Amino acid sequence: MKHHRVLRIVSKLLIPFIMLFALYVQFHGDFGPGGGFQAGVIMASAFILYGLIFGLENARKVAPPAVVTCLVAAGVLIYAVTGYAGLLKGGNFLDYGVLGATQVAGQHLGILIIEFGVGTTVAASMITIFFLFAGRER
Amino acid sequence: MLFSAFSLLSAGLFVALDAVDVAFTEAAVGAGISTILALATLALTGARQEAGTHHKVAPLIVVIITGSVLIYASIDIPPVGDSQAPSHLHVAPRYLNQSMKEVGIPNVVTSVLASYRGYDTLGEVTVIFTAAVAVMILLGGRKGDDAGIKNEPPKDENLADDDGDGGTA
Prior knowledge:
The complex is a heterodimer of chains A (138) and B (169).
Chain A: H1 5-27, H2 36-54, H3 56-62, H4 65-88, H5 103-135
Helix pairs in contact in A: 1-2, 2-3, 2-5, 4-5
Chain B: H1 2-16, H2 20-44, H3 57-74, H4 86-89, H5 92-102, H6 108-116, H7 118-139, H8 155-163
């Protein structure tokens, strides 16, 4: 897509805002619609747009597949470790209430962390799947 | 294309039903990512489909039976917005009434998803993780080989053909 100047410039302008929106959806999910799943997909779509416009090679430089693959697992790990942290603090598995000073504060913290884990896994998975699909030649 | 249009329409429908979170997901996943992946798949597969050797009657029977069972089941579904529906009487009142006290988050959807139903969400994340791993196994390059997807062994080509729709050109 080297000659599509309009597409390149518009997507250059849009990608930061898409990422910002993804972060907003990620960390504002407690108060408005959204959460890790949606944010992950939006974040991935920023990378996919970059890959579509500027080519797969450049996208691989921005998001190295080795790192992305690690992030796929890291998200699930963050989630599960948060669950076990509740166990270690004397609560039940995935009981965030014991993580903070008060029940509500703990719930806030736990939900923030596990949503981040969800977002990480979803974004990394989508980017990985896109890379693998787009990287195959006929 | 039809599917993505359908996804967008159902996202609008979910907004009309006040399920903004679901609409959000539907728009992002159904209309966005799925379309890109479907197009990527179309670009990978050939234009022609090989003539299938399987029967055409058996799938029809299965579809008819499943469809009639689903329609029969839909007779019992309570009307939209029925406050006495069984699904609104079990745990939903506790979630709606106690969420602010127990979890303290204005968005009840998030508190149900992340806190009350934490196990389920962990399962969902694991499903996505598994999907990514499955795609990596089927299509993927070797470990640590960043540009290695192009020069993969031809064995994978056959694998993808077996469950794909039609051979690669």
